[in-house]
Amino acid sequence: MPRHCALLIAGLFCWMALGLVPGNGAATGASTMIVGSPVNGLAYIQRFDGIVQMHTVSGALQPLQVVIRDWHVFNNHREPVQILAHAFTVAHLVSGAVTTVIGGQRVERRPNGYWNLPPGASMTITVKGEAAIIETVTSEPVLAGT
């Protein structure tokens, strides 16, 4: 992952945790929505879905579509569940222990661990205990004219 992308996402996590929005205060679309069901092994709470303005290295404002979700993954008889990343995504294991498979690579995850998913990647998750919570921040540039 390019260094500037990692710094951008780290900054977004910090700003969102503090309740601040980067740029000129331009953010739209804040929302909280619960989707899914424990019966299916996966549900999420959508914490934010909107456009934020970030300054580029040259000082220009770049609008980004940002979505923040808390995924609640339940041990559904040890059956894995899958999350698809439509854009660049940073994941944070908030609680629980899980095993993820991304691009064929299997990794044991512990609380407070961070990792990323490239656009188009799928992540298979197997919960080790009762349940786990994974926070994701997805961001992609807003293209002119869209």
3D structure, described in words:
It contains 1 helix and 10 strands, in the order αββββββββββ. Strands 1-2-3-10-5-8 form a 6-stranded antiparallel sheet, covered by helices on one side. It has a domain at 30-51 and 66-141: Jelly Rolls (Sandwich), CATH 2.60.120. It is 10% helix and 52% strand. It has 146 residues and is mainly beta.
Question: What is the topological layout?
Answer:
Layout: H1 3-17, E1 33-37, E2 42-55, E3 61-74, E4 81-84, E5 88-95, E6 98-102, E7 105-109, E8 114-117, E9 122-127, E10 131-141
Antiparallel strand pairs: 1-2, 2-3, 3-10, 4-9, 5-8, 5-10, 6-7, 6-9
Q: Biggest β-sheet, characterized?
A: 6 strands, antiparallel
CATH class of the domain at 30-51 and 66-141 reads Mainly Beta
End-to-end Cα distance, whole Å, is 26 Å
Q: Write down the overall mean pLDDT.
A: 80
Query: Structural class, from secondary structure content?
Result: mainly beta
Q: Classify the fold: give the CATH topology of the domain at 30-51 and 66-141.
A: Jelly Rolls
CATH homologous superfamily of the domain at 30-51 and 66-141 - what is it? Jelly Rolls
Number of helices: 1
Q: Report the β-strand fraction as a percent range.
A: over 45%
Q: Classify the oligomer.
A: single chain
SSE sequence, one letter per element: HEEEEEEEEEE
Question: Which strand order spans the largest sheet, edge to edge or round the barrel?
Answer: 1-2-3-10-5-8
**Rg value:** 16 Å
Number-wise, the strands total 10
Q: Rough shape?
A: elongated
CATH 2nd-level architecture of the domain at 30-51 and 66-141: Sandwich
What's the helical proportion of residues? Answer: 10-25%
- Which segments are poorly predicted (pLDDT under 50) over 5 or more consecutive residues? 1-8, 13-28
